[in-house]
Write a structure and sequence with these properties.
Length: 288
């Protein structure tokens, strides 16, 4: 099968995407597929002259340097070129931004290219935490109480902070409404930490979600083509499953299947499948 892997992109999760893309590309080659790899932010190949996935440069923070941005038409033109006319499927390994929010999916669907993951509408809904949570509430699926705010750093005034402090008890979570990889997330334990937490989230998105913190175990429930998969328990060494805990080797432990009762396992899996269906997901998805 001829497969095109899309990785990189111009979101703040670019580094994670390139790592995912390389892992997928290498696996496809091992399995005997004909694989290509492109960065949709530039429309350029991610393969070296020897056909292997290139090593990417990192900045001082340890993240992959952002490429020179180009319009989506760069990717559209590339996909329309004769070299890619016979691609059978596009494997999306993008994290965050237009790679997850439905924009890329829309472009691929217009171009008539089959792709992994959900379609444009489901991707847009799933990327919007507030919309996803409202759907959960409508279906009586438990979700922490929350409020979403349209915020820029200049909007952080006492008038904004007062209702937040009135509604939420410490600790609570502040995070971007439409980001991933836990970038911009903070656990707020006191009033003195709130402004910095909002600034951090607002640096990732203009919409910030404030969410009730629920102490407990971190369980992730994957769904493949509408079918439940075994639960995974994640135990971060730091106690908070943030960016470093997710992507730094040895910073978290993973237990499969999760060591919980059959009754609770079934309840979590049923909720994950229900969320998958009401959002309209396809392929592989995950609920935490």
């Amino acid at each position: 099968m001829k497969v095109l892997v899309l990785a990189g992109g111009d979101s703040n999760e670019r580094t994670v995407s390139l790592s995912s893309g390389k892992a997928v590309f290498d696996a496809l080659k091992r399995l005997g597929h004909i694989a290509y790899a492109l960065d949709p932010s530039s429309g350029k190949s991610l393969l070296g002259s020897d056909g292997s996935f290139i090593e990417f440069k990192k900045d001082d923070s340890g993240r992959a340097a952002a490429p020179t941005k180009s319009s989506g038409w760069s990717l559209a033109k590339t996909l329309g070129s004769p070299a890619f006319q016979d691609i059978e499927i596009v494997f999306i390994t993008l994290h965050g931004g237009s790679g997850e929010n439905g924009k890329l999916q829309c472009l691929l669907e217009i171009a008539g290219k089959k792709h992994t993951g959900s379609d444009m509408a489901a991707s847009a809904i799933a990327m919007d935490k507030a919309t996803s949570k409202r759907l959960c509430v409508s279906e009586k699926i438990k979700t922490p109480k929350f409020e979403v705010y349209h915020i820029s750093n200049k909007d952080i005034t006492d008038e904004l902070l007062a209702p937040i402090l009135k509604k939420f008890k410490f600790p609570f979570i502040v995070k971007p409404n439409d980001g991933g990889s836990t970038l911009g997330l903070s656990k707020v334990d006191s009033e003195s930490e709130l402004v910095r937490a909002i600034e951090k989230a607002a640096s990732e998105s203009t919409h910030v979600i404030i969410e009730e913190f629920i102490a407990g175990r971190e369980i992730t429930a994957a769904v493949l083509q509408g079918k439940k998969l075994p639960l995974v328990e994640i135990v971060p060494n730091s106690g908070l499953y943030d960016y470093e805990a997710k992507y730094t080797k040895g910073s978290s432990e993973y237990f499969v299947p999760a060591d919980i009762s059959e009754e609770l396992t079934e309840a979590i899996q049923e909720a994950a499948v229900k969320i998958y269906n009401i959002i309209g997901c396809s392929g592989l998805a995950r609920a935490d």
